[in-house]
Design a protein that fits this description.
Elements (H helix, E strand, L loop, with lengths): L5 E4 L4 E4 L13 H11 L4 E5 L5 E3 H17 L8 E4 L6 H11 L3 E3 L6 H11 L3 E5 L3 H7 L6 E6 L33 E8 L5 E7 H4 L10 E3 L7 H12 L3 E4 L6 H11 L3 E4 L1 H8 L14 E5 L5 H10 L4 E8 L3 E6 L10 E2 L4 E5 L12 E6 L11 H7 L6 E9 L5 E6 L3 E4 L2 E4 H9 L4 E11 L3 E10 L7 H11 L10 E4 L13 H18 L1
Parallel strand pairs: 3-12, 5-6, 5-7, 6-9, 7-8, 11-12, 11-13, 13-14, 14-15, 25-26
Antiparallel strand pairs: 1-2, 2-18, 3-4, 9-10, 15-16, 16-17, 18-19, 19-20, 20-21, 22-23, 24-25
Length: 538
């Protein structure tokens, strides 16, 4: 398959993908209307199969349940200005619930149910959902997080005594056969989903995702079978949700932990043809003896996003997934897909600019750079963005007045216009796909009286993502140990991804710029050098 067309403006130093044009979708059509029409046109196609309970839903059944949920939202007076909360893993009712929100034009705020109680409370407080759907095992956490405004809460899996299940909202109505989706209110970009991202100052941001961002021109045939472990709370899961429906395809869902052995089971049972996941999953797959070329024969597209993968891992993947196009995607929740690599060449690159996307590489002085020069990646979609929900000030720091998104990632284009991610300028990190931020850990370490200064950085581990490591300056005469610092963090932040898995290294002074700001990249290099020396001495 040929890669994406791209043009480069030598004068402006801007890379541009092909023009975004999709005549199937008129500007004044809501995403709910588009999905509604697709579901009606392919009633007998299998829309979703949930491996956990074995329930298979046709497009017709999905639409029926979604209409009933949309009518419930309408009766409650919910519209595009309200929010519906979802804190649940993939399960049977996820697809109808997501469609129901689209039909009523009410954005859903999807949160990972594995988030700790403090983060969940902070997120809920930002959007204050009028109705929340959650898994039974996180009901108490969700109830506590929303106690100040007491929304209606429904379980989407399992049962909790005295708490209604989503099933009570799925009874037939007298008007469902004549139902029509709510019209689009904000033409050019109406928020349909709110996803979570960690900020660099501590608390996660609530990112608005517009309908136009999700209508990217990804064309798949209706006979394909999709699988991703991501739920609606990740952009990958959200895109698979939309793409599979608008293409009339089938998506496989499961709330079970994804091990290589379970992945083999899913591929063999459902003949999965498109599999999308995070880099740690790819690394696990190629290291598992059961993941063979024969077992993976049905896979035609193996995609990953969110971080880099080593060249060695990609080479092993090519030998196992012999019939698959291994594609990487570089995307921002705020503006959608930035670049895609659609060929099996240059597999360490994240590809070329996507349709409708412009990209430039910018140095610290704000000047555009050319080929093979490393700088911060700026992206421009030309689409309307709703910003960070409830926090317009934060949005102004991420998207400039000309509409360019400052990604916080460092990269460069090669001579053939392929983009490479070199490093992460952001302080936000990911461990097993869950984001966390360094300032929170730094603040906890700084609580120790023996500590004078600290810089926490991510040390990339292909198996799990970013492991936190701390470069620490201690007061003269102090004898605090690495273990004491690690134990303090473990006690104050009892969440696995926030532990100092990469360890602690001590230094006399943190590297800083002329303004006294810590240079994290230099701190990381010093940390790694000390760690390497420590290992050599063992």
């Amino acid at each position: 398959m040929a890669d994406l067309p791209v043009t480069y403006d030598e004068k402006e130093r801007i890379w541009s993908g092909g023009e975004f044009s999709n005549s199937l979708y008129k500007e004044d059509l809501s995403l709910g209307t588009i999905v509604f029409n697709t579901l009606r046109n392919s009633p007998k196609n299998v829309c979703q199969i949930c491996d956990a309970d074995g329930v298979s839903l046709t497009f017709e059944q999905t639409l029926t349940w979604a209409i009933r949920l949309a009518q419930f939202f309408k009766r409650k007076g919910l519209n595009h200005e309200n929010v519906i909360g979802i804190a649940a893993l993939n399960s049977t009712y996820i697809q109808p619930l997501g469609v129901g929100c689209l039909l009523n034009g009410t954005p859903f705020h999807a949160m990972n149910p594995a988030l700790d109680e403090g983060t969940t409370s902070a997120l809920c407080l930002k959007t204050k959902p009028a109705v929340i759907f959650c898994d039974d095992n996180v009901y108490e956490k969700v109830r506590s997080a929303s106690i100040n405004w007491e929304p209606e809460i429904y379980t989407i899996t399992g049962k909790v005594e005295g708490v209604p299940s989503i099933e009570v909202l799925l009874d037939p109505t007298e008007t469902e056969k004549n139902y029509q989706p709510e019209p689009l209110v904000k033409i050019g970009g109406q928020t349909v989903a709110i996803l979570c991202s960690s900020g660099t100052t501590g608390l996660p941001k609530t990112i608005c995702v517009s309908d136009r961002t999700l209508l990217s021109p990804i064309n798949y045939s209706s006979d394909l079978v999709f699988y991703t472990p991501s739920g609606l709370d990740w952009l990958t899961g959200l895109l698979v949700f939309i793409v599979s429906i608008t293409c009339g395809s089938t998506v496989i869902r499961s709330n079970k932990p994804v091990t290589p052995q379970y992945f083999v089971h899913l591929v063999k049972k459902y003949k999965i043809s498109v599999a999308l996941g995070p880099p740690p999953l790819i690394s696990d797959l190629v290291s598992c003896p059961e993941v063979t070329a024969e077992a993976m024969e049905s896979v035609r597209n193996l995609g990953y996003a969110g971080a880099s993968i080593s060249l060695a891992t990609l080479q092993r993947a090519r030998k196992i997934f012999r019939k698959a196009m291994i594609s990487s995607t570089y995307a921002l929740t705020e503006c959608g897909i930035v670049t895609r690599n659609l060929t099996n060449s240059k597999i360490s690159s994240v590809g070329r600019p996507y349709q409708g996307m412009k990209v430039r590489i910018v140095d610290e002085l704000g000047q555009n750079l050319s080929h093979n020069e490393v700088g911060e990646i700026y992206a421009y979609s030309g689409l309307s963005w709703g910003g960070f929900y409830g926090d317009p000030e934060a949005a102004s720091h991420f998207q400039d007045s000309e509409g360019w998104f400052h990604t916080g990632d460092l990269g460069n284009f090669d001579s053939e216009n392929f983009l490479y991610i070199v490093d992460r300028k952001k302080e936000v990190l990911k461990h097993h796909g869950l984001q966390y931020w360094t300032p929170e850990i730094e603040d906890v370490i700084a609580e120790l009286p023996q500590v004078r200064d600290v810089c926490v950085m991510g040390i990339y581990n292909e198996d799990v993502g970013d492991e936190a490591g701390a470069l620490v300056v201690i007061n003269e005469g102090s004898s605090i140990t690495t273990k004491e610092i690690q134990d303090h963090v473990a006690k104050r932040l009892p969440v696995i991804r926030k532990q100092l898995h990469a360890g602690v290294q001590f230094t006399k002074k943190l590297p800083t710029n002329l303004n006294g700001k810590t240079l994290r990249k230099a701190a990381r290099e010093e940390f790694l050098a000390k760690k390497q020396l420590e290992s050599a001495q063992l």
